[in-house]
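Q: What structure does this chain adopt?
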Amino acid sequence: MMRMSFRDYRLRNGFNETHRFDFKKLFFPFNFVLLVTAENCIPHNAEVKMKPLALLRPLSFSSSCSSPSRLHALPKPLLHNRSFRVSCSLQPKPVNAEDTSPRSEYEPGLVDDTFLTLFRNKMVKEVGWDSERPGYDGLIEVANRLMLTGRTNAETREAAVRILRSLFPPFLLDLYKLLISPLGNGKVAAIMVARVTAITCQWLMGRCTVNSIDLPDGTSCQSGVFVERCKYLEESKCVGICVNTCKLPTQTFFKDCMGVPLLMEPNFTDYSCQFKFGVFAPQPEDDSSLKEPCLEACPIASRRRVAQNVVGQCPKA
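A:
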C-alpha cells in the first residue's frame, strides 16, 4: 500500500496551493468535547494547561452523544447546561468484588445515655449496691450483683420485674392494659410495643429491627423485634443472667402489666434474639432456653468447670 503525502492528499481533495487548510474546523468536535468536559469537571478558578497532543487521544462518548458528528446539531443552550457531560477516557476507580467492611454497630446518643442512667439507677435501688465502673460496664456488674443477691432464681426474676415496673408511671401501664390491649384481638398493642421496643431499647440490646412473625391464629403481624447481636448477653457472658434478669422477667412484665403476650427466643450461639409480641411463652419445662448449657466465657461456669470438670446447664439458669 502506497503512502500518500499530505500535499498529495490536499491536491486529490480539491485543494490547491492557494487554499488554506483550516485546522480549527477539522478538530472542532474534539475541541468541543474537551471544553464541555473541562467546564463540568474542572473548577472555574483553576488554571488549566492542555498539551496539543491531548487532542489526538481517543475519547469515549456517552449515550446522549454517540458520535462527534452529532455535536454540530446540539442547540446552543445545551452548551451552557451543566447537567450535560461527556466522559473522557479516564481509568475507572477499581471496586472490590466483596465488601469486607465490618458490620455496623449501634452508637448510643444523648437520649440513650439518659435511658441507661435511668435504668441503672432503678437497678441500683433494687440491689442496694452500685459499681464504681461507669456506663454500660457498670450496669453489667450491677446485673451480676442482682443475680448474687437473690436466694433463688424466682426471687431474682421478681426483682427484675419490679425494676421494669418502676420505669413507668403505674396508671400508664393500667390504662394501656385496659384500653389498648383489647384492640384488634391484641394485634394493635403488640405492634405498638414492638415499635417502641425497637426504638428505645437499642442502647441495651444493640441494633434491632421490627420484623413479621407468625401468630398462633395462623396470621402474620409486624409485631416482632429481631436483635442482631444482643449486647446484654454478649457483655454478661452468662445464660443465667440472660434468662433470669431479661428473658423471663420481660415476658412476665409485658403479659401481666401491659396485657401483651411475649415470647423471647435468645440464640446463645450467635447472640441474636427474636422478640415475638402477641405470642404466649411456653411453660418453663417446655422452654428450651432454660436447658441451654453454660457459655464458654461465662465467669460463673468457668469457675464451676475448674472445680468439677463438667459442662452442663448454667448453674444460675
